[in-house]
Amino acid sequence: MSLTTDVAQRFLDENFAPWVKALDLTIARIDARGATLTMPVSDQLMRVGGIVSGQALAAMADTAMVFACAGMLGEFRPVATTNLDTQFLRPGTGDRIRCEAEIVRAGKALIFTRASLIAEPSEKPVATATATFFLP
Fold first, then answer.
1. CA angle 59-50-21, nearest 5°?
2. Residue 55 phi, psi dihedral angles, 5° rounding
3. Which of 3, 5, 42, 126 has the greatest count of CB atoms below 10 A from its CB?
4. In the predicted structure, residue 57 carries a pLDDT above the cut 80
5. Which residues partner with 106 through β-bridges?
6. First-last CA distance in the chain
7. Contact at 8 Å (CB) between 107 and 76?
8. What fold is seen in the domain 5-134?
9. Where are the domains of the chain?
């Protein structure tokens, strides 16, 4: 089974915490290799200095990697983040942030993922992240 972007978006809208939904994420792609999400840059996500807060970027990366797991599994199954490492490369500015998440390796109980966060329209990398998920 493969998930569509519409099914994934509905799952996000109906099942994630209100503060994650407040990021206004859009599922742009989901398949067996991973997922791509976008997030509009808005005043609600800004910190001092007029840049997207690191907390919003980290939450976006974690969420995108959860959807990458679902895409690889072909369905939504509970996964638990056991490790999340985020490197901030430059200030998040522009119109949107695009997060491209991919599966690095999937074992029986652990799924290893990585994500790149890119500012649009400049196409400059803003952050990278890696995460490990436990699959119960």
1. 30
2. -65, -40
3. 126
4. yes
5. 111
6. 20
7. no
8. Thiol Ester Dehydrase; Chain A (3.10.129)
9. 5-134
The pLDDT tens digits for 103-118 are 999 999 999 999 999 9
DSSP 3-56: --HHHHHHHHHHHS-HHHHTT--EEEEEETTEEEEEEE--GGGEETTTEE-HHH
Tokens 């999937």 belong to residue: 106
Check if the beta carbon of residue 36 is closer than 8 Å to that of residue 29: yes
Give the per-residue pLDDT at 1.
53
Distance CA 31, CA 111 (A): 15
What is the rounded average pLDDT of the residues 78-91?
Answer: 96
Residue pair 21/59 in contact by the 8 Å Cβ criterion: no
- Closest by Cα among 66, 77, 135 to 99: 66
Whether 121 and 94 have beta carbons less than 8 Å apart is answered as yes
